[in-house]
Amino acid sequence: MKKINFKIRGMHCASCALNIENALQDTAGVETANVNYALTEAAVEFDEQVITESGIHKVVEAAGYRLVNNEQIQSTMDEHQMSDELHQAKRRTLLAFIFGLPTFILSMFAIQLSVSIAELDLSVWLQAILGTAAVFWPGIGFHQMAFKLARRMRANMDTLVSLGTLAAVMFSWWQLFIGGHLYFESAAVIIAFILLGRYFEAISKGKASEAVRRLLELSAKQAHRLRSDGSIEEVAVKDLIVGDLVLVKPGEKVPLDGEVLAGESALDESMLTGESLPVMKHVGDTVFGATINARGVLKVQVTKIGEATVLAGIVRLVQEAQRQKAPIQKLVDQIAGIFVPIVLGLAVITLITWLVLTGNLEAAIVPAVAVLVIACPCALGLATPTAILVGTGRGAKMGILIKSGEALERGRFLQVVLLDKTGTLTQGRPQVTDIITTANFNREKLLELAAGVEQNSEHPLAQSVLEAAKKEKIEPAVATGVEAEVGKGIKGQIAGSVITVGSPDYIASLVEVDTAQNKKIDQLRLTGKTVVLVAVDKQLAGLLAIADAAKEGAKEAVADFRALGLEVIMVTGDHRKTAEAIAAELGIKQVEAEVLPDQKLALVKQYQARGQKVAFVGDGINDAPALVQADLGVAIGSGTDVAIEAGQIVLVGGGPEKAVEAIKLARRTYRSIKQNLFWAFFYNVVAIPFAALGFLSPMIAAAAMAFSSVSVVLNSLRLRKIKL
């Protein structure tokens, strides 16, 4: 299966998107098709053995729409220009008002016609000519699309506008010859108002998708590459390859992801993480493309280019989220799919009813036209995607990457949040604080043996032991036959002896641990430290106490989670006494301690079995299954790639306080979706009956319709500034 994304021109309402989607889904070889009206974009998955990419494009074109190639898209982004579509919308709108306003003004001075054609005033002829020109020149797009769709037995909002304005114009020409009231100004003003609404809508949608464009604009365009002879050349960033050496001067952007080989400086990473404080970078540290070098000169080796960079990954995640539909959108699509046929039926019923009641064709046509014009499937189609567009865009600015509309919806119903301790609530950089040996071993020997075994492990506690040995300039012993016992410890052979490093319970099952030693272990645990024992063959060699400091803002984040109505639970593999000491420091009342890595998944299921909606926040490889199982998985971006892939929301930098912001943003966005949908449904449910009963003229109906779709977009745009 192959998946492609492409832009589409010519979509004017939700029905347009559904028409294209249905046409694609009815095509042999197409597995899935998702057309996003707000993004004017399609995502299609298809079997290349059955249909080609050009075949997919032809299906869209046959439905009456045009495609935009990738070069055009990139050009538009690079040049910061309005799209051709926006230019055309502006031109058509101006043209419609040039014709429409004089027609409207002339109609204000018109009289009821009861004279022969020869006696007609010039102003009446001007009304007829200008009004008809407005309908068939700037308004020609409505009729062309309506005709194309009619040939395929389909309809959309263009069908409603086309029928309404054509009915008004044709009836007016008839009235012109037989004598009676004219509606040329209604037809002209309808076209003008609807085009004005679409123009404002296009501008608003452009603002809604601004976040992704700004992310794309962040990347550096030029770089200073170091030649092998030490000289410097200025090259385009796109010409850099992995392994190139670049010089980053103060005030310049880092061109691509890389590793610092020389120099040190503070980097502004706010564009990726949302954190305002600069981050110090030293030799060996990773730097990211688009971040700004604040002061020192850095020599950087490029490690990632193109789509592999962190910035490209962020853009990709945001774009994917914006393309996907929230579950609530499925119901909206079903309604939008039958909306236009229902409105057409209501217009016919209105026409017949008024004709029967009054016997007057004029009295029947006016409310029927108003029904056709006032109905607005656009508001329905924009309600969900524009809110997702703005919400995910704001999240990207804050360093919160929301992968789907479903994640936004799930954030609304959460009841429990499970917080993995290491790396989420704590720094994830544990340090050895106490080294206690038994009679037959000294401090240096204990560290040499422990580090010898632990250098084969990636566990954070193992890294802390290696750091302790390095600080004391102790070379780790060479270990062979190293084996890890998941959640318990690790063992290996050094100089003929079996060295085991692990939890007190695990070591106690192998060697004797006396009362005094157990008492010391308990004392250390009560201070929030993790205790690791070291055994040599069948003898206890000593213990290491390791502490992992809490992240700044972790305690406040816990309080904020509670303020959101969430039950906060800390999850850790630590001994219960250690876990409870850390939890007490952070203000957490509930603790799940001594949880083995493979038990986190079962723990999430356990809470879900009680009927609770669960969020899981974590950053490690062993968190991935729990992140996937949780109703909402929040992955800390500084963690492993596996965890990031598993999470539905990814936090770029930061700690638990950013997870709080993510849930707040999800709830705010979902609230905007509900507000938009309420307005869209309320508007149509109230407006259509009012029009059918004759309370609204076609002109007022057109203005109301234009306002309804623009108001939905404007409400979504509030998310850009609203306080979380």
Structural class: alpha+beta
| Model regions low in confidence, pLDDT < 50 over at least 5 residues | 71-82, 111-119
Which geometry do the CA atoms define? elongated
Strand tally is 26
The residue fraction in helices comes out at 40-55%
Strands of the largest sheet, in order across it? 14-26-25-24-15-22-23
Strand content: 15-25%
The major pleated sheet works out as: 7 strands, mixed
Report how far the terminal alpha carbons are from each other. Answer: 41 Å
Work out the helix count: 27
Précis, in short:
A hairpin with a 3-residue loop joins strand 17 and strand 18.
Describe the model.
The structure is a single chain. This protein is of the alpha+beta class and 724 residues long. Strands 14-26-25-24-15-22-23 form a 7-stranded mixed β-sheet, sandwiched between helices. Strands 6-5-7-13-8-11 form a 6-stranded antiparallel β-sheet, with no helix packed on it. It contains 27 helices and 26 strands. Helices cover 52% and strands 18% of the residues. The relative contact order is 0.10. About 3% of the residues have low confidence. The chain starts with a strand and ends in a 7-residue tail after the last helix.
How are the SSEs ordered, and which strands pair?
Layout: E1 2-9, H1 14-25, E2 30-36, E3 41-46, H2 53-62, E4 66-68, H3 70-79, H4 84-108, H5 122-136, H6 140-151, H7 157-178, H8 184-208, H9 210-218, E5 222-226, E6 232-236, E7 245-248, E8 257-262, E9 265-268, H10 270-273, E10 279-281, E11 286-287, E12 292-293, E13 298-304, H11 310-323, H12 327-358, H13 361-374, H14 377-398, E14 400-402, H15 405-411, E15 416-420, H16 421-425, E16 431-437, H17 443-454, H18 460-471, E17 480-485, E18 489-494, E19 497-502, H19 504-508, H20 515-526, E20 530-536, E21 539-547, H21 554-563, E22 567-571, H22 576-586, E23 590-592, H23 600-609, E24 614-618, H24 624-629, E25 632-636, H25 641-646, E26 649-651, H26 656-692, H27 698-717
Parallel strand pairs: 15-22, 15-24, 22-23, 24-25, 25-26
Antiparallel strand pairs: 1-3, 1-4, 2-3, 5-6, 5-7, 7-13, 8-11, 8-13, 9-10, 9-12, 14-26, 16-21, 17-18, 18-19, 19-20, 20-21
